[in-house]
Design goal:
The complex is a heterodimer of chains A (441) and B (494). Chain A has 441 residues and is of the alpha/beta class. Chain A has 13 helices and 15 strands. Helix content of chain A is 37%, strand content 15%. In chain A, the strands form 4 sheets. Chain A has a 7-stranded mixed sheet with strand order 2-8-7-6-5-3-4, with helices on both faces. Chain A has a 4-stranded antiparallel sheet with strand order 11-12-15-14, covered by helices on one side. Chain B is globular. In chain B, strand 8 and strand 9 form a beta hairpin. By secondary structure, chain B is an alpha/beta fold. Chain B has 16 helices and 13 strands. Classes of the chains: A alpha/beta (441), B alpha/beta (494).
Chain lengths: 441, 494
Amino acid sequence: MNYLPINFQQKKEMLEAVGVKNIEELFVDVPEKARLKGLLPLGDGAGEMELVSKITALAKKNTPATELVSFAGAGCYDHYIPAFIDHLLLRPEFFTAYTPYQPEVSQGTLQAVYEYQTGICQLTGLDRANASMYDGATAMVEAAFMAVRLAHKRDKVVVAGSLHPEYLETLKTYTHADTVKPIFVDPVNGVTPTDDILAAIDDTVAAVIVGYPNFYGAYEPLEEIADAIHAHKGLLIVVANPFMLGLVEAPANLGADIVVGEAQSLGNPMSFGGPGLGYFACTSACTRQMPGRIVGKTTDVDGHTGYVLTLSTREQHIRREKATSNICSNHALNALAAGMYLAGVGPTGLKEFALSAVSKARYLHDALVATGKFEPLNEHVYGYEFALVYKGAAQILYDDLFEHGYISGVVLDEHVLLFAVTEKRTREEMDAFVNEVKAHE
Amino acid sequence: MNNLTETGVYRGPRETIYETSSKGLTCIVPPALDVPAIDIADTFGSIARKSAPILPEVTEVQIMRHYSHLASMNFGIDSGMYPLGSCTMKYNPRINEDMARLSGFAGLHPYQPQSSVQGALQLMYELQKDFGTISGFPAVTLQPAAGAHGEYTALSVFRAAHTAKGNPRKKVIIPDTAHGTNPASVAMCGYEVVSIQSTESGMVDIEKLKAALDEDTAAFMLTNPNTVGMFDSQILEITQAVHAVGAYAYCDGANLNAILGITRPGDVGFDALHINTHKTFSTPHGGGGPGAGPVCVSAELASFLPGPIVEKEGESYRLVTPSNSLGRVRSFMGNFGVLVRAYTYIKALGGQGIRDTGEQAVLSANYMRVKLADVFDIAYDRICMHEFVISGSRQGHDYGVHTLDMAKRLLDYGFHPPTIYFPQLVDEAMMIEPTETESKESLDSFIEAMHKIAAEAKNDPDLVKGSPYFTPIRRLDEAEAARRPNVAWTGSID
């Protein structure tokens, strides 16, 4: 099938109006030998009923984590998503709208993004947030590039090796052209030694990038690093999970100049890892170097409050090769969901949800360690995610328990497992899981 | 005048959700804890949050009304025609949404065992194949998150391939008609941008291209069909010239819509292409995204693609990283949810539907072009592809009514305006792309509105210059927004 609303008679009238005999005449500019003969081998089109049965069958071949007892996290989390979010996201005026270049008919998107930006500023403690990035990894890369632009002649960025490995890989890809030179500091037992970070800082370093928490769930000391990099007139970039920011201190209050990360945890489904939601916040001093779209408040000719895309002189459509970034499409609809999530939970709910997740994580952590089969990877403070060293073969335990309906976190190496416990897990599930672990030989 | 519709529903400015908040209200709370609560101060010590973030404090009904009101101030493709040249705002079939929301897709964790995601991997594998079939390239990565991200990815593939040959080279050549993302992507990839002037008819000036090409050229980037709506008929000669100096030819696939099932970038000598799935394969733009920007490449470049990509082994599918992979360009597998929508759409269309789509997109654009030619200057008044450029310079010169004014006036007639002031090489440009999903009735009513506006520009120019009048809000002070940035609400909630 197709979705074309023009019938044979109308098509004939249109061809006549254009002054051609047939449709082929419209493709005069395509060289004869480049034209396809016949149809592409894409099969027959399907009607909606066929699509549903064919694609549902594919979906059924998967066993979604949401239908298992899952402790998988590692940058993508199974949090509860309030029912109202999807009802609102599916309002066609939101989800079928284009980038709001015509503000008079885009106030819905613009105001919603402004409110999302407000939420991100509140969580991070910074004054400026943009309308979104693709994901946490690309947001981190853009932050590194921004720090180098702001630092003028410095091109080094010290990077904590305890950050998400895929974020590190993405940064490596983006720095292959040598415009930014990353210095990776190796982690020890899931924590990047602060002393090693401090030792790497000097007057040639534009910024330090640290996780909050890091990939292994641990909270590393930010303030000491902030003081050191600030003493050398560089910036501190913090990669934070925003779900925890109602419970732990705003990174800006610990010295962060730029805070970025993945906000899938705020009201967005896991969806096999994408689309996610990169968020980006910085101090007002960095505003004009910030990548991506920004919504600002202003007034119309009648004096009414309204919103527009602003500071666009930084952007690719104006500055071309001198733009702060090439980003054009962002993840506005995911940002809208995050804004709605923050409105739904409010300051109390956000704190309570995080408290619930951390309490449950503590419960599972202690119960697993009590089996005698696990040891903590380190003694650092953790949130709702933590790494444990298993005394046997981690992959065998993982595969065995998967057969029983559990996702035992993420296997990091031969012995290390990374567990995330969101507010969705129950004591009953965790007790049953621990019993399965005990029973595993 | 602007705030009340005929039904009396208020659609004007609304205070932020923060301002509608009242201390202590909440919508969603977690269930009672079934494990001992941690002691926050004890657990987090100095990093325990000292003062709570200011977030909305509202109940569910307030949220529903707030966002419903905001939605009523928005225009989407379901609200009306959106003839945005180069942005391709076509109708998005609802079945795509339902399929992406199946728990078997939306509920997947990226690191769960590959044996438990075989359906998702099969979908990705088949989509890679279908994109290969449509584009004429043997290898595809689905990882890039957007068109510009695809540009960056493809340029990085070129860099990796040149580096493997011993020299990454220095510059990338771009015609002056290129989208702004092209030069920005080139710069991010560490290359120097060399811009070349197009011919009078908006095509690549082969002589200028040949003069710019040398052993330092890494690639030539071309949008084809280009941004004035023309397919470059010298394409075979162009790609040949690019290859002659050992450079790669890149096709910006923003306008793939027009050539679906007609011709393939891989068959005319390009080495790589990105696909804007949100344009060509009907994912809603969502007010700016998410989209996806898969990259298709020639056999020579396949091993350099970012991983992971999906391979089939016997009856099972697995994620692999190509042997010379340049690394990943983001986390996880890509914008999987967007890929499900594209997959659903391609399966709906099949080979015949794909070709019909390309043909109708081109016919609709040409129909509109001839119907507007009597009142507007058509920049290149000849057979076009899926879009064409008109100029408002006649109205600007004769009556002082500019393209921006006419665009705003279109809002009063219930249409989203076309892309304006792009491409820059056409004075007072309006780039119109009706897409294939508009009925003849909607094409005709847009044409009629444009004629009325042309008449208004002549007879009552101030009317057009003062527009819009019937939108939820009127012209906004953009200069003020940039001069004193206010990007977040600051206040307190009582």
